[in-house]
Each structure stands twice: as structure tokens, then as C-alpha cells.
Write a structure and sequence with these properties.
By secondary structure, the chain is mainly α. The chain has helices at about 10-40, 45-80, 85-120, 125-140, 140-155, 160-185, 190-215, 230-260, 265-280, 285-300, 310-340, 345-360, 360-380, 380-405, 410-435.
Length: about 450
């Protein structure tokens, strides 16, 4: 656990972010390994099937992830105020909510998976493998939510190292099982999905055993959990806008995928690979924003709002350095990275074009997330949700449809930086108003 209310702001944020960054890279790493194994040992149709499944998965889990983020902010503010009883009650409340949410997600996903894929115009030759992969993946929702919820709780208390250790275990297990199930047992996409479910389950079990034995506050148990309605209301108030935001982003990604699917298997495969690499490239900016949100939450909870601006400026500087370096690497070596997934020259060319276009605007993306991190740390999640909906549904999707009719798939790629620029302008202006400071839930006593 890390108290972020004292000490050098930039150093605290960086130290907190680095383990989360490593963890996210490991998490993306086993997604990348999934795609490399699928692309090289099964084929580009299977690569397209796995890639087409991820926007659907994101839609199904996005609302719950958003609600969990509300709990994380509540925990960080209570932790900053040294109110450990309410920290424990918030933890219990989150686990109860996550359990029922995971059951509902699995049932809904399996029932409607084929209808969703058909709505997205998924080619018939890809459909059977996509359904097989998605339905197996959904069976692991309980452990997925359990592990990610546990990690979110730890981060809310300033502990970003412990989730990393569990994630390393999960990643290494997933890679080994991928190779075993696909190459040795020839299980196809079924083996890739099964490897993910088993590795996530193993990580959750390991986390429970370790935390119950060694952690000062967290005690994960099946009985005696306390559901606190007031904390739940605070969490809903903060998390629901983020949940809607994630959901509408996920639906927007599905809409973009629907446009991509109309261009055939090669473009689907290229977009699937390039978007995986794109996700890795944007991780540092997203993680720094998450670290800033926890920093802001703890300091506002401790009635030290004067530290927020310095934390923001430090985060902008750190993020800029990493983002500029990342852009240089992607522009220089994007085609080489894609070649690791597939040897198909047309898929490589299409994916390289996507990466070149979007990577030039990573800095815009990074600044947008940084300003939003301040607002979320304060508990002001409604306005960022509105900004996201505007930039996605009024900018990205309409321009993807419009430009793709004139420029082909290249027009889709240009819609991404256009939406980021819109989001950044709105977030920066709202930050300057200072209205986000009024959303803090913890009111420290005046001494």
C-alpha cells in the first residue's frame, strides 16, 4: 500500500505507474501471443475470428469494468482519508457486485453471440471459429472479473506491484498453454480460448491465497461479506458514467468493426493485428492517467488539492517523453512487427498503413487521457463520458463511414485521430473550469 499524499508528486506517480505499466504490457503480451500463434499455426481466417471477437467481449464487460472503476475511486479516497473500515466495506461490496455481474455477462454473451456477429457482417468463413472462441472465453468471466476486481482494489490503495506478480503468473501460464493446446494438441482457436480461461483462473486463485495470508486489509472469503448500500450508491454515482462510457466506446468499436468487416478477411486480419499493436503502444498513456487518478483521489481525500496541478504537469511531461519515443518506434518498425503475426503481404501492407496514420497522433491521445485522469480521480466521471460519446459517435463513426466510401479502409484509420483531437479539446477546456473539484465524496474534518 502506498500513501501518495506526501512526497514528490512526479516521483510518486511514476513509481506507482511502472508496475501497472509492466502488468498491462504482460496482459497485452499474452493477447499478442494468442494472435501470433493463431496467425502462424492456424491461419488468417482464425486470426480474423479472434480479432473480431474482442470488440464483442469489450461490449459485454465494459459496463462492469466502469462500475468497478467507481469502487476504485471510492477506495482511494477512503484510503487517503485513513478510513480503513469503509475501505474494507467497499471491498466486500465490490466482490458481491462482481459475482452477479459475471454470471449475467456470461449468460447474455452466449445466448446472443451469433446474432451479434451477424449484425457486424462477419464473413461466413470466419463465423464458426469466432463463435467457438467467444463462447469458451465467456465461460471464464467469473475469474476474469474476480482477478481484475482484486487488482483494481489494490491499485486504489496505492499497491500496483502485487497485481503485477499475479499477472506475470497468468501470462506465462497462458503462453505455455497456447503453445501446448494449439501446436501439440492441434485444438485450434478452442485451445487459445481455453488457455486464457485457465490462466486467468490460476491467477485469481493465487491472488486469493496470497492476499488472505499476507495482506493487512484484504480478506477474500465466501461468507460474511458485507454489502454497504451507501458505498454502493457512491460507487454507482462515480462508476456508472464510466460504465456507460466504456459501453458506448465498446459499441462504437463494434460499429467500426462492422465497417472494417465489409472490406473482407484481409482487412479484418490486418486491423486485428494492428489494433493489438496499437493497444500496446497506447498503454503508457493510459497507465499514467490511471496512476494520476489514484494520486488525485488520495490527495483530494486528504484535503490536499494543491498537489493536483503539480501531479498533472509531471504526468504530462513523463507521458510526452514515452509517447514520442513510442511513435518513432511504430513508424520505423510497424511492418516488421506485423510480419511476426502473418506472412501474408497484403495483410502486412494494410496493417502498416493503419499504424503509420494513427501513431502520428498518439500524443493527442495521451493528453486527452491525462486530463480525464484528473477528473476521474476527483470522482467527476459524467462529463468525461459525454466528451467520449461526442468524439466517438459524432466524430469517429460518422467520419469512418463517410471517408471509407471515398478512401477505402484508409478512411477508417483517419477517423481515429480526428476523434482524439475532439476529445482533447473538450477535456482541456473543462479542466480549466475547475468544476471537477466539487465531486469529491470524502470531506475530511478540519483540524
Amino acid at each position: 500500500m502506498k500513501d501518495m499524499t506526501t512526497g514528490k508528486e512526479g516521483k510518486l506517480i511514476l513509481q506507482f505507474a511502472l508496475p501497472m505499466l509492466a502488468g498491462s504490457l504482460f496482459q497485452q503480451f499474452y493477447n499478442v501471443v494468442d494472435s501470433i500463434v493463431v496467425g502462424n499455426f492456424i491461419g488468417k481466417e482464425a486470426l480474423a475470428a479472434v480479432g473480431a471477437s474482442f470488440p464483442v467481449i469489450f461490449v459485454l464487460i465494459s459496463m462492469i469494468i466502469g462500475l468497478a472503476s467507481g469502487i476504485t475511486i471510492v477506495i482511494s479516497q477512503y484510503f487517503g482519508a485513513k478510513d480503513y473500515d469503509n475501505v474494507r466495506r467497499a471491498i466486500d461490496t465490490m466482490y458481491i457486485g462482481m459475482f452477479f455481474a459475471s454470471i449475467g455477462t456470461t449468460v447474455v454473451g452466449i445466448i446472443f453471440s451469433e446474432d451479434i456477429f451477424r449484425l457486424l457482417n462477419l464473413p461466413e468463413e470466419v463465423m464458426p471459429m469466432a463463435l467457438e472462441y467467444l463462447n469458451i472465453y465467456l465461460l471464464g468471466m467469473i475469474t476474469f472479473f474476480g482477478f481484475n476486481g482484486t487488482s483494481a482494489i489494490l491499485r486504489g490503495m496505492g499497491d500496483s506491484k502485487t497485481p503485477l506478480y499475479f499477472l506475470i503468473i497468468s501470462t506465462l501460464t497462458n503462453v505455455g498453454l497456447d503453445l501446448l493446446f494449439v501446436i501439440v494438441f492441434n485444438m485450434g482457436v478452442k485451445g487459445v480460448a481455453l488457455a486464457t480461461v485457465i490462466s486467468q483462473t490460476g491467477a485469481l486463485v493465487t491472488a486469493i491465497l496470497y492476499l488472505n495470508r499476507y495482506h493487512e486489509i484484504i480478506n477474500i472469503r465466501l461468507h460474511g461479506l458485507v454489502f454497504d448500500r451507501q458505498i454502493f450508491k457512491h460507487s454507482i454515482r462515480i462508476g456508472l458514467p464510466t460504465g456507460f462510457q466504456h459501453s458506448f466506446v465498446a459499441l462504437g468499436n463494434m460499429a467500426i468493426m462492422g465497417v472494417v468487416n465489409t472490406f473482407g478477411t484481409d482487412v479484418i486480419a490486418a486491423f486485428s493485428v494492428a489494433s493489438r499493436l496499437d493497444a500496446i503502444a497506447t498503454i503508457p498513456a493510459m497507465i499514467m492517467a490511471q496512476a494520476l487518478a489514484t494520486f488525485v483521489g488520495q490527495n483530494l481525500g486528504a484535503n490536499k488539492s494543491y498537489r493536483v496541478k503539480t501531479g498533472l504537469l509531471s504526468t504530462i511531461l513523463l507521458t510526452s517523453i514515452v509517447t514520442i519515443a513510442t511513435t518513432a518506434v511504430i513508424v520505423s518498425f510497424g511492418d516488421i512487427f506485423i510480419d511476426a503475426f502473418t506472412s501474408d503481404p497484403n495483410v502486412i501492407d494494410i496493417g502498416s498503413e493503419y499504424l503509420t496514420i494513427v501513431s502520428l497522433f498518439y500524443l493527442v491521445f495521451a493528453f486527452m487521457f491525462t486530463f480525464n485522469g484528473v477528473m476521474r480521480g476527483a470522482g467527476d466521471t459524467f462529463i468525461p463520458m459525454i466528451f467520449t460519446l461526442i468524439s466517438l459517435w459524432l466524430i469517429r463513426i460518422p467520419f469512418a463511414l463517410f471517408l471509407s466510401n471515398r478512401l477505402g479502409e484508409t478512411g477508417i484509420w483517419w477517423s481515429f485521430p480526428m476523434s482524439w483531437a475532439t476529445g482533447l479539446i473538450m477535456s482541456w477546456i473543462y479542466y480549466l473550469t475547475g468544476r471537477w473539484k466539487k465531486k469529491v465524496i470524502v470531506k475530511p474534518q478540519v483540524r
